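Our consortium's second objective concerns turning raw sequence data into structural hypotheses that experimental partners can test. To show how far this objective has progressed, the report includes one record in full. It was chosen at random from the queue rather than selected for favorable results. The single chain below, 500 residues long, was entered without modification.
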Amino acid sequence: MVLAAALAELDDPYTRAALTAAAFTADGLLERLGAPAYAALARSETVPALRATRGDSPLDTLVRLFLLQRSVPAAAAAAALPLEECVADGWVVHEGDLVRATVDVRPYGGPEGQDWFIVSDLGCAVGGAGGIGSHEEGVVLGVGGASTTLAGITVRKPVTSALDLGTGSGIQALHAASHAGRVTATDVNPRALEFTRLTLALSGAAPADLREGSLFDPVGAETFDLIVSNPPFVISPGARLTYRDGGMGGDDLCRTLVQQAGEHLAEGGYAQFLANWQHVEGEEWQDRVRSWVPAGCDAWIVQREVQDVTQYAELWLRDSGDHRTDPDLYAERYEAWLDEFEARSTRAVGFGWITLRKSAAAAVNPSIVAEEWPHAVEQPLGSAVEAHFARQDYLREHDDAALLSAHFTLAEEVVQEQVGLPGAEDPEHVVLRQHRGMRRATKVDAVGAGFAGVCDGSLPAGRILDAIAQLMAEDPVLLRDRTPQAIRLLVEEGFLEPVR
């Protein structure tokens, strides 16, 4: 496939206009295919979509051509696309009376209803059962669960500059272009930069400054208001596949990425990554990842999943299609993974999110929260991430006396649950539960439940506690002494919101 011509010619809007006119969009696909076939396509299962696109409409043709990778009659393709321009640009090729695609063009709905398109290598939709081992080392993947997760957790406030490090097919750069004045995208794979340029142009986004190189090498000493990266974080023996294997030992690539990010963040800027980290014998994973956080940065580290070393090896052996190769070769590669983990005393691997924020306060008293949260969350979480750091600022600035003088309100979508035996006069315990964002739940005692229930911003916390002490016949001084820590926790986890 030759992409150079496409890069030169895609300044015109004709291909994008043809795709949107045919309703080859996220909404159009859902309507045409129906929910079951649409969901199956996301799992890389094509039979339901093939059945749903037996017609000869332009949309049927485009689905079969780009998403299902079927050859279509040239006449049908000409009715759906500016065909000869697409041939000249390298998007499709003639095969007699048929036409086949050379790239995967996948509709992608933007957060504000934009009709975007992600361009990647054929046959590389993430999540298929067959793996991608038959593709070349420099393969460029399309949209997968990891990339949409990162897009969802990214803080989306307007910024002057953004960096997408390890851009791949350009999904993070595309999102950043919607709220950043200038976007820089880097990758060690030059083909990835070409695909990113196509993704941005076909989606109608502003072009990015594309640079080839590893980690922060392409940007020198530049700083950015936002850095995002879905890096090749897989902990593997060697570096067989550029898109996933970082080429450093263990979790060194993720460590290096996080440690170097602080030097490239502007004051108040965010750096957000997906990462894997080792669970090493005799070491807490939280301590390991906390040690990566650079000076001058606050951090929020969330571990979403843990796999033992056998599960982890099997996951990525399937990803690369090794389970479909010669059994002896599969066993040899499996052994290599386990040898690598044994040499590093690794018993499991964690996956999660790391967010850094550069701040002057962090240089003196950093807030580094490392927690495990494998439960369901409500995406997008960008605003919840921003709110987390705002709460850390508030708690850092307010001692216990200041908390008792402050006013709070109960956050929206928080409900109270009482758990106990049927008919019992009093519950065994009370739970506060969020139905938005992180969807946390926390146990509280009678004082905590009563306090949260009357927080409407009208009274300072200390006066509320005095009233509770009177109702419960407790010493108000003792209650004031022991309660600020509980208030602090409820604020930190987003159950209570300070009235600013």
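The partners drew two points from this record. The mean pLDDT is 92. The longest strand covers residues 265-280. Both points have been shared with the crystallography group to help prioritize constructs.
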